[in-house]
Amino acid sequence: MTSPKVRVNAFSVSLDGYGAGPRQDQDNPIGSGGLALMEWIFPTRTWQALQYHEGGETGTDDRLAAESLADLGAWILGRNMFGPVRGPWPDDSWKGWWGEEPPYHCPVFVLTHHARPPLPMKGGTVFHFVTDGISEALERAREAAGDKDIRVGGGVATIRQFLQAGLIDELHLALRPVLLGQGEALFAGLDLPALGYEVARQVRGERATHVSLRRSPRTT
Amino acid sequence: MTSPKVRVNAFSVSLDGYGAGPRQDQDNPIGSGGLALMEWIFPTRTWQALQYHEGGETGTDDRLAAESLADLGAWILGRNMFGPVRGPWPDDSWKGWWGEEPPYHCPVFVLTHHARPPLPMKGGTVFHFVTDGISEALERAREAAGDKDIRVGGGVATIRQFLQAGLIDELHLALRPVLLGQGEALFAGLDLPALGYEVARQVRGERATHVSLRRSPRTT
After folding, report:
1. Which residues contact A185 (CB under 8 A, 6 or more apart)?
2. Cis? peptide before A155, omega within 30° of 0
3. What is the C-alpha separation between B74 and B68, in angstroms, rounded?
4. Predicted local distance difference test score (pLDDT) of residue B220
5. Is the pLDDT of residue B2 over 70?
6. Fewer CB in a 10 Å sphere around the end CB: N or C, chain A?
7. Are the CB atoms for B180 and A193 separated by under 8 Å?
8. Residue A107 reports pLDDT greater than 50
């Protein structure tokens, strides 16, 4: 049996290296132009099923989308991936981008500097707000996940923090042939080979090129 | 008849956005680790023929390599792509990385701050040293090229200068699934959509994914 992993999956990156566009707000969860990053996953059967729709395409993109959701026991999200609210929570009205029944169906640990009580949602998702940084979030996620994997969902700043700390075991990127021009740069100043990462696999999907990075054993 | 274009072709970029590794020197023309960027072109029949070798692979990578050399009447190179010598030329002994018969076979305009007489080589290549910047280099290249295209060969800094000035008509990148970790970042701070560029085509080769950018007419 393999031990639980800390994974990033299906994280979309533009040709010019951005994992999100600029100027995130309530109408632009992935920043201006950022939805173009995700256009490979929307047509898949896996994504359609998350929205409780029938049908959708099968193929390589769909297979990778399905793998991205398999065997997960907990998620970790940055504050901005949870929502556009900044600073102290004005009240408990913001409950994420995903409506009453978010697609996580397990505990989700949200990094924030501002405490807030846990937020149980329909379908098994419980948002926990972690104020002591990525190590505490990972420890709590490990406890919650048991023998399942932990997925670091994003955004860019959160993934970069985890990579810099060498805490990601596998990173699956979906490279999209689009230009954003501005936004949150995933790789800038991040020396991934020095951090022990190497390219493990490349798979060409219908609308994205999927590249998986793995942390090589010599550096652990 | 289409009018002559200013093209970048077959310019290789790592997954983390580098067009060259760090620490270029005489033994590492593309910087440390930089040769990995080029490993898609070495096996092609087109590349092998440039080295006067028989054989080599045919396929998509080879087709794009061949297109990259077609219809060229002049090249423009940055100083570092011509050689590792910095500052004033100590003498005329450095004649490029390519030996007595470089693979250009036409006029090549080398950007430099330090004047030097033209350098004719075997096989029709003549290196001209241009000290007044990219506009003068382009003007002289246009005169020399006649109705053929001009290729801006690199390196990263030179291509970025031409892009920022909106002077590149077509940019063909060969995306390689390798990590460099450090080096010369092609896209950093360059807002290509704002400069009028868009993705025109994506073709999957054997060892690289080829993406072509084009400057859209609305901005000319």
Report:
1. A17, A18, A19, A156, B188
2. yes
3. 13
4. 45
5. no
6. N
7. yes
8. yes
Averaged pLDDT for residues A141-154: 97
Query: Which residue among B16, B173, B193 places its CB closest to the CB of A181?
Result: B193
Name which of A179, A198, A199 is nearest B198 (Cβ-Cβ). Answer: A179
Interchain CB distance below 8 Å, B204 and A209:
yes
Count CB atoms within 10 A of the CB of residue A67: 16
pTM: 0.93
Find the DSSP H helices in A51-112: 60-69, 79-82
The residue-averaged pLDDT of A73-102 equals: 95
What is the spatial distance between Cα B29 and Cα B90, in angstroms, rounded to a whole number?
19
Nearest to B6 by CA among B121, B161, B209, B113: B161
Whether residue B217 has pLDDT greater than 80? no
Q: Give the tokens for residue B94.
A: 């450095």
Q: Which of B13, B14, B16, B219 best probes binding to A when mutated, by most A CB atoms within 10 angstroms?
A: B16
pLDDT in tens, A2-29: 689 999 999 999 999 999 999 999 999 9
A188 phi and psi, to 5 degrees?
A: -55, 120
Element (H, E) at A202: strand A197-204
pLDDT tens sequence across B44-72:
999 999 988 999 999 999 999 999 999 99
- Nearest by CB to A179, from B179, B199, B204: name it: B199
Handedness of CA A78, A79, A84, A87 (dihedral sign): negative
Phi and psi torsions of A38, nearest 5°: -95, 0
CA dihedral A147, A154, A209, A61 (to 10 degrees): 60
Alpha-carbon span B144 to B4, nearest angstrom: 12
pLDDT at A216: 81
CA nearest A161: which of A4, A8, A5? A8
pLDDT in the model for residue A2: 67
Of A23-27, A119-123, A197-201, B159-163, the range with the lowest mean pLDDT is A23-27
Residues listed for chain B: 220
As to burial, measured by CB atoms within 10 angstroms (0-12 exposed, 13-18 middle, 19+ buried), residue B180 is buried
- Cβ–Cβ below 8 Å for A199 and B177: yes
CA-CA distance, B11 to B30, in Å (whole number)? 12
Answer whether B190 sits within 8 Å of A16, measured CB to CB. yes
